[in-house]
Amino acid sequence: MKRITESKTTNETDKNSKAKDRKAGPMQPEPTLIANIEQIIELAIELKLDQTFYAKAQPYLAYVAERMSLTPSQALIFALFIEKSSDSRIQIEDFSRLINCRTVRILAMMTETNELVQRQLIRRTKRNDSIYYSVPADVINAVRENRVYVPKPIDHLTTEQLFDRIDTIFENAEEDDEALIDKLDTLISANPQLPFCQKIKSYGLNDDLTERLLFYVFCHRFINKNDDQIGTSDWEDYFPRFTVHHIASMMKARSLTLQQTGVIENRNDDGMNDSAFYHLTNKAKSELFPDLQLADQQAKKRTELIDHKTFAERKLFYNQKMQSQIAELEELLSPEHFANIQRRLTENGLRQGFACLFYGSPGTGKTETVYQLARRTGRDLMVVDVSQIKSCWVGESEKNIKATFSRYRSYVKQSERAPILLFNEADAVLGIRQEGAQHAVDKMENSIQNIILQEMEQLEGIMIATTNLTQNLDKAFERRFLYKIEFERPSIEAKSRIWSSMIPSLDRKTAASLARQYDFSGGQIENIARKRTIELILHGKEPSLEQLNDYCRAEIICDGQNQPRCRIGF
User: Fold this and answer.
1) Residue 384 in 3-state DSSP?
2) For residues 267 and 256, what is the distance between their CA atoms, to the nearest angstrom?
3) What is the domain partition of the chain in residue ranges?
4) What's the rounded Cα separation, in Å, for the pair 147 and 436?
């Protein structure tokens, strides 16, 4: 009886305590930036920034202000930007809609944004006479991790570090040309000890913003993109179309200061100037980059290219139709035919790039076929990691995919034989586009797909995509793939040959029996062959036929009723 009374008393005490907490007001948030920012936003929405807001939000504003060395007003503005950080084009009106208050109330506080911009906590851009804001990904990450964001110092850099920063500036550029040049100029001014920064002053570019930006573009593409053949299509990434035409006209007339001072010149192939492409002169390279080992530098930039010589020769087995299609593709990609075919296509006003789709079940040899084509035709391979392209930050995924194709174009220009661009397991970027997309993720997917479609139209090299899910393939992609090869599961005859190839100790009859008994892909048969090799290493003896059958049965995943559910393949 005593224990029951004590328990009852304890429960009543807990209830009373909770009632007191409720009367005392909302629970204090965790001592983190994100928790306090959340409280600020909730109160701002609830109270519409009226006079009572500042009294109730004071402890939360004070926490953010103290942690980040801001004023309370700056802390409020910063919290609003974090709330809208999924948008890469934030405008003042977005805040008034969020809080449901008049825009003038927000405008009265916006003078505080200058400090946030100066500290690189937000980014301000100007497009078509409109002001937009965004929150850099590094700032968002810092807030999530409860850290105060500290910008990286821009002074006392090496030339390599300088160009890493220049690369970041160009990749994240969303402002007008004047703001972009200002960022680059500030970086150069902060590093007067570097030969590159010293030499710029002698080129007489101070009065011409367009030519100064053009100079930065040439240097950026040479060092960061390994691109020593720069044409009109490259300028379009940095200048409006009308400016590109203006630059092209001046270059043709050789009236640019960069040309007259011997900084840039036409590309020269086989003793003939190519009027379509330009690059930095050897003299300029030696003056600007004396502290860089350029050969090593350019080699480093090519590390994402996989040398075709590294692919081991493997014998692949196809059904008759697939064999014929792959043989035709290999002949097309051979050095003795490829250039001539491209030339003839160009003469006839047709696109010269080759986009190919390999589709079919897992484990049917799609990826390995690409490797073998690269090895046999002497073409290096650039593999696109789709998971690395997609970013949770708005606008970053689009920049990543553009940068991927930009680097590939550079490799095509610089390589004797155009490398192969491989989108492996490309289901995630080749799916059906969403009409009238409303969600940020759907909009991002559509943007990525539109960029890829555009790049495929302009492709000058070789692109191969592999996928398992063709039912989700957008019709626009289907049209742009010149070669579409279905990788079917191997026939019994093909499977028998795969068994014999991977386990040479099998006689023909046993290989045929295993082929009939198990509907395996080539990848699954390879799993069995690997287990057999492990058995040989560990125990020094050939596994029996019964052991092979055990391996095969283990390869099949079954449901609760011992019914095959799916098969493991790769």
Assistant:
1) strand
2) 16
3) 25-144, 159-301, 308-487, 492-567
4) 38
C-alpha dihedral, 51 to 53 to 59 to 62, nearest 10°: -70
Q: What is the mean pLDDT of residues 37-64?
A: 92
Instruction: Kindly state the tokens that stand for 220.
Output: 């950026």
174-203 pLDDT, tens digit per residue, is 656 777 888 898 899 999 999 999 999 888
State both tokens at 177: 């040309």
In contact, 510 and 503? CB cutoff 8 Å: no
The answer to whether 558 and 565 have CB atoms below 8 angstroms apart is yes
Give 296-303's long-range contacts (Cβ < 8 A, gap of 24+).
297/160, 297/223, 298/226, 301/224, 301/225, 301/226, 302/226, 302/411
CB-count exposure of residue 416 (10 Å: 0-12, 13-18, 19+) = exposed
Phi, psi of 133 (to 5 degrees): -130, 155
**Residue range 341-366: mean pLDDT, rounded:** 86
Q: What are 465-492's pLDDT values in tens digits? A: 998 876 677 777 888 888 899 988 888 8
Does the domain spanning 25-144 belong to CATH 1.10.10.10? yes
Q: How far apart are CA 446 and CA 430, in angstroms?
A: 10
Nearest to 260, CA basis, from 219, 206, 204: 204
Name the one residue in this structure whose structure tokens are 């099949």. Answer: 556
Give the rounded percent of residues in the chain with a pLDDT score beyond 90.
22
Sequence-ordered list of residues with C-beta below 8 angstroms from that of 70, at least 6 positions apart, any chain: 64, 78, 115
DSSP output for 500-554: HHH-TTS-HHHHHHHHHH----HHHHHHHHHHHHHHHHHHSSPPPHHHHHHHHHH
Q: Rounded to two decimals, what is the model's pTM?
A: 0.51
Alpha carbon separation from 482 to 25, 351, 472 (Å, rounded): 67, 10, 18
Overall CATH class of domain 308-487: alpha beta
